[in-house]
Amino acid sequence: MLKPQLHHSNSTQIPFILHKPFIHGNGNASFPISMHSFRTKNKQNVRVVRFSNSSNIKAVASSTEKSVSVKAVVTVKRTVTGFFSNLGIERGLDDVKDLLGKTLLLELVHTELDPKTGLEKETIKGYAHRTSQEKDVVKYESSFEVPIDFGEVGAIFVENEHHTEMYLQDIVLDGFANGPVHVNCNSWVHSKYDNPQKRVFFSNKSYLPSETPSGLLRLREEELEILRGNGQGERKSFERVYDYDVYNDIGDPDSNIDLKRPVLGGKEHPYPRRCRTGRPRSSTETAIIDADLGFPYFTAIDSLFNEGINLPAPKTLNVSQGFFTSLLPRLFKAISDTEENLLRFETPETMDRDKFFWFRDEEFARQTLSGLNPYSIQLVTEWPLKSKLDPKIYGPPESAITTEIIEQEIKGFMNGPGDGTLRPLAIELTRPPIDGKPQWKDVYTPCWDATGVWLWRLAKAHVLAHDCRQLSEMHPIYRLLHPHFRYTMDINGLARLALINAGGIIETSFSPGKYSMEFSSVAYDKQWQFNLQALPADLISRGMAVEDPNAPHGLKLTIEDYPFANDGLLLWDAIKEDPNCRSWLTRRTNRGGQSLKTPKDLIEIITTIVWVTSGHHAAVNFGQYTYGGYFPNRPTIARTNMPTEEPSKEFWDNFLKKPEGALLQCFPSKIQATKVMAILDVLSNHSPDEEYLGEKIEKAWDENPIYKGVLSRSLTGRLKELEGTIDERNCQ
Questions:
Q1: Which of 497, 523, 525, 498 is nearest to 512 (CA)?
Q2: CB burial class (10 A; 0-12, 13-18, 19+) of residue 700?
Q3: Mapping DSSP to helix (H, G, I), strand (E, B) and coil, where does residue 134 land?
Q4: Which of 436, 565, 603, 718 has the fewest CB neighbours in a 10 Å radius?
Q5: What CATH number did the domain enclosing 131 receive?
Q6: For 56-111, how does the pLDDT look when each residue is reduced to its tens digit (9 = 90+)?
Q7: What is the pTM of this model?
C-alpha cells in the first residue's frame, strides 16, 4: 500500500477512501491525507484534499469555494527621527478616520494580466483600521475576500486617508494557501490631500527587468518615472524624485556678499552631484557666544567635561542663532533640562584612559594608521621630496626636508627595538607667497629641549588641523544594496543646511575657512576614483601594500602594524570572497538574456559599495568623538602661525616665557571647539535602528530558501569569526 507524505499547517489527518480511477493498486486504499478549511464568502466550510505518491499523481476533492478570507496587517513606525506627534495619527480629524476604520485604503494587485482580456485585473480593495499601539509602532488591519482564481498578489496600492504623511514599515497578507505575502515598505506615504496618486509597494519577490510579470510591468515603469527627475520645478515635500544638481546652494550672497561661494560640480570645480530637493537657500548662522574667545588654560578645556560651559538661555535665541536647537535637538534638551543652561560633554574614552595621550608621538603615529583618517598616509617613492603644486602660485617646489635630517632622525630609532611600527621623523610646514611676502617653509623634528618640544607640538597641531579637511526596489541588486544607503539623502540635505553651507560649521571651525568646499572639489578632481575605493586597490595606490600571492589576502603590507588595513582586509574578503555570494551573483547576472561579459566586475563593484558604506564608513565615522571629542588631539583649525614664521620680538619673547599659551591660542576658540564637539558626538552615535552587516537578512531574501542560504550560511558565520579576531587584536 502506498503511503504518500502530506504536509500542511494547522491540519488534521483522516482516512479517505480512494478507488482505482484515482490510483494504481489492488482494490481500495486508505491513505493518511491532509485537510484544511477555508472560510468562503458564503460562510461554507470546504475541505481541500491533497496527496502525492511516487508517480506524483494528485487528487483534489470537489470544491465549491468562491473566495478566501485574507487579513492584512500594516505596521506604521513612529518615524526614524522620533517626531511621532507630527504624524497627527492621534489628533484632530485623523482621529475620526481611525474611529471610522478608514485610515488606509489598500488595493491588492495581481501579478499577471487577465488571460481573457489581456488587461490588468481589477484590484481588491479594503480599508485598514488601527488595532494596537506599542511603543514605536502602530498596527492597522484590513480584511479581504479574495476570489480563488485571483492568483498571486504582486503589489499593493496604498492611499493614506490622514492629513499628514505616515511612515509604513511593512504589510503582511495572511490567509493564502501558499503562505503569507510580505511587502517591505520602509517609506513615507503622503496624504491623499497633498497628492491623490496612490503609492505602490511591490511584494518581496525580486525580478530582473526581463522577468517582471505582465501585471506589474506598467507599475514598474511608472514607479521608475516617478523617481526620475527632469531638473525642472521645485520639489514638493511629498515627492520622491531623485533629481540631481550641482552644489549651487551652499552660498548666500543675497544676504551678505562675503557668503558668495563658487558652484561645485562644473568643469572649473568638479564635484559629485547632490540630490536636487528644492530646499530654500542656506541661511547664515551667527555665533551665540564670542567667536574669538579661546581657552586660557588646559584646565578650562577639561571643564567642558566636568563643569560644562554656560550658554545663553534657549528662549532668548533667535532663528539665526538656532544651531543647537534646530540641528541638535538632543543637545538642546541637555541644555534646557538644566537651570544654569550648561552644556556638558561626555569624557571621550581616549582621554578617560590617559589624560595626556595626545601629547605622545607614539599616539600621533598610531592614529595616522588607525585613527579618524587612516586613508591619507602614502609611501615616499621619490627622493628628494618635491611638491606637485604650480610653482608660479605656490613658490619653489623643493622640500626643505633633506637627506641629512632624515638620516639624523632615523639613527635614534635604528638603535631601538625596530618593532615595525610607524614613527614621526619630521614635519614640514609651508606658506605660499602672500601679500607681497615670499614663500616661507620650515622643518620641525622631535626634540628634547623645552623650546623645541613646544615647537614640535605646535607643528603636530598644524598637521592635524590640515588633516581634518578630509573628515569624513524590485531589482535584486537594489535590494542587496538598499540597506547600505539608508538616510543618505537626509544626511546630505542636513549637511548642506548647516555643515558645508557658507558660514556654516565647516567654514567657521576648520582651517581652510570659506575655501573648504573648493579644496574638497580639488581633492575630488585629482584624487578620487571609484575603483580606488576598493580597499586592496587603495592600499596599493598609496604604496602601503604590494601584491603578494603568498601573503594573507594576497597583499604584503608596507607597515605591518597597520590596524585599519589588517582588520579591513578581513572584512573585505568576507564581503567579496564568500563563494556562495559569488556564485549567486554570477547566476543572477546571466539570466533573462542580460548576461554580463564579466560577472567579476559586478562582484567588485558591489563589494566596493558595501565596503565603503560599512567597514570604511565605520572606521572613519564612529570613532570621531573618541578621537576628536578632546579637541587638542584633533584640532580642526590652527588659528595662529608657527612662532618661527617671521615672529615679532614681543611674540617670540612671550612664546619663550609661556609656550603652552601659544598652543592654546593656536587651538580652536570656544565656540569653534564646542560646535565641532557637538557635531562629532551626534555623528559618532549609532542610529536607534542601526543595521549591522550580516546581522539580519532582507525580508525579500529571507522568503526564498536558495537566496537565504546563499546570503546567510557562510557570510554571517564568517563575520562572527572576524569579530572575535578583531576583538582579540584590540586586547593585545
A1: 523
A2: buried
A3: strand
A4: 436
A5: 2.60.60.20
A6: 333 333 345 588 999 999 999 865 443 334 444 445 555 555 665 678 899 999 99
A7: 0.63
